Amino acid sequence: MPIDRRSEFLKSLRGALAPGARVAFCDQLPKTDTGPEIPETDSYQERTLPDGRRFRVIKNFPSQSEMRTFLEPFADDVDFREFPEARRWVVTFTMK
């Protein structure tokens, strides 16, 4: 999701869930070093569907500290874990 819409998304999520609801997000770890981190800047990747159509999609790779910072106003008990062997990260939290 676009970096500048994270708060909007989390406010909407909080409005749809009861306080204390457990939430999990999962995504890929970057394949390689993505270069210097530029805060508040979206990254993009190109994706090709089986029928050949191509799309440019937002693909951000938040660090653990970045994830904790933007979740802080909305979440308690944040647990961020990386699984390098599966190239995945998972963050779970309790909705405030």
Q: What this model shows, in words?
A:
- Strands 1-5-4 form a three-stranded antiparallel β-sheet, covered by helices on one side. It has a two-stranded antiparallel sheet with strand order 2-3.
- It is 20% helix and 35% strand.
- It is an alpha+beta fold and 96 residues long.
Classify the secondary structure makeup into a structural class: alpha+beta
Poorly predicted spans: none
Total number of helices: 2
Q: What proportion of the residues is helical, as a percent range?
A: 10-25%
Count the E strands. Answer: 5
The global form is globular
Mean pLDDT over all positions: 91
Biggest sheet features: 3 strands, antiparallel
Task: For the structure shown, list the relevant keywords.
three-stranded antiparallel beta sheet, 20% helix, single chain, alpha+beta, two-stranded antiparallel sheet, 96 residues, 35% strand
Short summary:
This protein is an alpha+beta fold and 96 residues long.
Write the layout of secondary structure elements.
Layout: H1 6-16, E1 22-28, E2 44-48, E3 54-58, H2 64-71, E4 75-83, E5 88-95
Antiparallel strand pairs: 1-5, 2-3, 4-5
